[in-house]
Structure formats: C-alpha cells, structure tokens
Design goal:
The protein is 28% helix and 24% strand. The strands form 6 sheets. The protein has a 7-stranded antiparallel beta sheet with strand order 3-2-4-1-10-9-11. Strands 5-6-7-8-12-13 form a 6-stranded antiparallel beta sheet. Strand 21, helix 14 and strand 22 form a beta-alpha-beta unit.
C-alpha cells in the first residue's frame, strides 16, 4: 500500500516469530507477506541454527530494502541460507531512525555473554533520547539510529545473570509503545508494553508456536489463533512449551490502570480479516460506518437516489456499514463501486504529469463514470491527514460529473502527531489543525458539498469495552497516556 499516495499516517511495523518448525524461514516469509501493509521500506528474517560440528548455535541473517517478495525473491535464501527451526522476521516502516540507513533494517542481532539475541520491534520508545544519551555517556557504541537497538543494549548491560531477568530488567526501563519478539539460543520471547498500544497475538501451527502483529499472518500458514499477548506480559516459549503445550509468563512492573490500545489500528492500520485486541477488525469498521451514517446522513429525494462509494481498499468495510445503516433508517441510498484501484501500479513509474502527486492518484484510482455521472455521491473514507490527496481524489470524482459530492470520514479530525509508532506529518501540516478545525474551510479546500467526521464519542462507542479496555486517542484528542521526553519534538523521534 502506498501510504504517501493516499495521504494516510504511515503504518508502523509488522513482526513475526515461530518456534520449532522445520520450515521456520518459509513460514516467516509467508507471515511477513501477510503483514506487508504494516511496512514496505525493508524486511528481514533471522533464524537460529545449531552447528553440530562446532557444538554451538549460529544465527543466519538476511535482510534488505523493499517488499518481502523483492528481498526474498531467491527461494534458496529460505531453504539454504536461513536454516534452522526458530525464526523471527520484521517488516519496516521507519517511525524512529533513518529510512535510508541499511543498519536500521530489523531484526537486530547481537552476541553477548549469555549467547545470541535477535529482536523485532513494533512501536516507539518515548524515553529513547534520555536512555540513549545515558548509554552513550557510559561508553555504549550504537550501530543504528533506531530506538529498538536500545533494548538489546539494556539487556546486555543488565546487572542480572539470568537472561530472562535481564530482559525483564530492560523492559522495566523503557517507556512508550512496544510489541517485541525476541529470539535467544533456547527460547522465543514475545512482549507488549503495559499499555498494550500495539497488537501482538499468539498462535499455534501443529506443534509449533507462532507470534505475529496480526492474526492474518496466522491464516496464511494455517496456524490457529490462541490469544493476544497481554499488556505488560513477557511470554516465554521454549522446549518445555512444546512438550507440555503450555507457555510461561512474566509481567513488567508498571502501574497502569487499564490498557490504551491504539484506536487507529481499528480505523485504518490493521487488515479487516485480522483479529486485534480480541475483536475482528471487519466488525468494528462496519460499526464505525453505521455510526457515521447515523451522525451524518445524506438526504435522498425521489428524483436522485444517492450512491455511497468507498475509497478502496481501506474504507470498503466501513462503507458497507454506512450503506446498510442508511437503508435501515429508511434512506433511499445505494452502495456502488464508483472508484477502481489499480493493484498493479508499481511504487515507481513514469510520471507524465507536472504534478507528480496528481499523477500517482490518477495511476492508482479511476472513476466508474457511468455510476457517478449525475448522481448524488457519498464518499466514505477512514481519515484525512494533510488533505492533499483527498483534494485530488475529489477533483478526479468531479470530472465524472456527479450532481453532488458528500465526504464522510469514519474518524474524528486529526490534530496531533503520534509518538507511539504511527508516523503523522507535523501538526502544522494536518489539515484539521491548519484550518483550526473549521469544517466550512475544510469543505471548501477539498471541494466537496458537505463533510462529516465521526465524533470521538461515537468512534469510542464502536470499539469493544467488554473487559474494561481503554484506548489511545491522542492523535484526535491530544491526550497522551505516556509522557514524552521533555523538549523532544516529533522530528527528533525520527533521527
């Protein structure tokens, strides 16, 4: 998915791990393919192999820039290079750390006094600046500019002798958002921060255990979803787990009243066929669409039945919810496919237009003119960030000669940057902040007849609360659950 094109917050990262499977690297490859939407800049796989000749463990590493299918296009990499029955993988989009630094591509690996360690991280550490400065002052040499590397250094420098104690010690020092999968010489370890910002799930494939950012990675390999890793949990999978069918857990010592799941995972990030935070994403998105229809209906008349169309693919499910609820409340409205998205346009192509952004929009999207012409059109989308691409998309729809265009958004206006693993532009670039939340000005800039955002109250109504779940809504409300390093700007989080 070209996030720059559709002007959405960039996805964070996707992580995957598998323990004791004869085709560990291949299973990881497929899992990362299913998680491709969470990061497209780079990808990597690390496997643990045992060298019988020298009687020691060995890490096999392969990673590079690009999509999973591009980096691992040579099948022999999975069968001949990445040997071993334990593996972890990572899809990267940089939220902290230079995108162009090859050393920032995960998984990260280290060999220290307790053996090998490999790490994949999804999220952002909010106290990384102070921790990095402290470690550098004490002589630590960093190989990357990524906040994730801090965790490995904290483990290696821990005063504890036992490796699990070292990992727990390190995680008690970091703040912010992290879903982690760690590989040691004898275990696969999964951990989530006490607030549970980012999703992380546990599954099983035959007798092997699997962990992944989303359950869609289980589906592609035929694994069964067991449960989510709990907020604050450090889950240990080892050979005893294979024998007994039970994992072991520790918990991070932080006083947190309730989880703060990232609500944007439901709105946009996660795939609709995934279960995250214990709920099916498709179900939540349909409810978002239904509540949007109740809050911002578009009236119909006898002469012109309104049509509702999605901006494919992210808002497809929510659009179905909007259409069904509109019909249920007696509105004469019809769901139609009015925009076609090309799935074969590459990430780079010849740009025949002076405005390259407009060229990208026209290459990715095309209107079904016979559906749109002369109709009252309701366009449902999940969010508006800068508004630049939305403006071009509306222009494209206008060229199909609709009678009216009504823009409906299944989330509130975005006013604030995120420090927990999403990459929004600076506050000044956000259309809602730039235009002071004035809906009339936003409507005029986008070129639509009306605009309606789902309220924060209704968005929170759409997500599960069965077990006392709490949600992070900082990008909408400005309420940050975890403090940020003092005097640290958004830009400094992208060193």
């Amino acid at each position: 998915m070209d996030n720059e094109l559709i002007d959405k917050p960039r996805s964070n990262c996707g992580i995957f791990g598998i323990y004791r499977h004869p085709q560990a690297a291949t299973m990881t490859y497929y899992g990362l393919n299913a998680l491709q939407h969470r990061g497209q800049e780079g990808t990597g796989i690390v496997t643990l192999d045992y060298d019988t000749e020298h009687n020691k463990h060995h890490l096999n590493v392969y990673k590079g820039f690009g999509l999973v299918s591009e980096v691992f296009k040579d099948e022999s990499l999975l069968t001949e290079v990445l040997k071993g029955d334990i593996a972890i993988g990572h899809n990267r989009y940089s939220t902290a750390g230079s995108a162009n630094n090859r050393f920032n591509i995960q998984p990260f690996t280290v060999n220290y006094r307790n053996g090998h360690l490999a790490l994949s991280h999804n999220g952002n550490l909010t106290n990384f600046k102070s921790l990095r400065t402290k470690l550098q002052d004490s002589g630590t040499i960093f190989q990357t500019t990524s906040d994730s590397e801090l965790v490995l250094h904290l483990i290696a420098r821990s005063r504890y002798q036992d490796q699990l104690d070292q990992i727990e010690d390190a995680l008690n020092q970091v703040e912010g958002a992290y879903s982690l999968v760690l590989m040691t010489d004898s275990a696969l370890i999964a951990a989530r921060d006490p607030h549970g910002f980012r999703p992380l799930a546990l599954g099983k494939l035959d007798n092997s255990y699997v962990v992944a950012s989303e359950t869609c990675a289980f589906d592609i390999i035929g694994a069964k979803y067991i449960r989510d890793i709990k907020p604050g949990e450090i889950l240990i999978i080892d050979d005893d787990s294979i024998l007994t069918g039970e994992t072991k857990s520790r918990y991070i010592e932080k006083n947190v009243d309730k989880p703060r799941y990232c609500i944007f995972e439901y709105v946009y990030f996660s795939r609709p066929d995934s279960v995250i935070f214990g709920e099916n994403v498709d179900k939540v998105r349909r409810k978002l669409g239904k509540l949007l229809a109740l809050e911002h209906p578009v009236g119909s008349d006898d002469e012109n039945t309104p049509i509702v169309i999605s901006v494919p693919d992210a808002s497809n499910t929510a659009t179905l919810g909007y259409a069904s609820e509109s019909q249920k409340t007696g509105q004469n409205i019809k769901f139609e496919i009015g925009l076609i998205r090309s799935h074969y346009a590459g990430r780079t192509f010849i740009q025949p237009y002076q405005d390259s952004r407009e060229a990208k929009v026209r290459t990715k999207f095309n209107t079904v003119k016979g559906v749109i012409k002369g109709r009252k059109v309701v366009v449902v989308d999940d969010s508006i960030v800068r508004g630049t691409t939305a403006k071009l998309l509306i222009k494209l729809i206008r060229e199909a000669e609709p009678k009216e265009i009504h823009f409906r958004i299944t989330s509130p206006p975005i006013y604030n940057p995120c420090y927990y693993g999403m990459d929004f532009p600076s506050r000044e670039e956000l259309i809602a902040d730039r235009l002071d939340g004035d809906l009339e000005k936003i409507k005029q800039e986008l070129g639509v007849d009306t605009i309606g955002y789902l309220s924060l109250e209704k968005m929170l109504e759409a997500v599960p609360h069965d077990n006392g779940e709490g949600y992070c809504t900082a990008c909408f409300s400005g309420e940050y659950p975890v403090p940020i390093d003092v005097e640290t700007t958004k830009e400094e989080y992208e060193i």
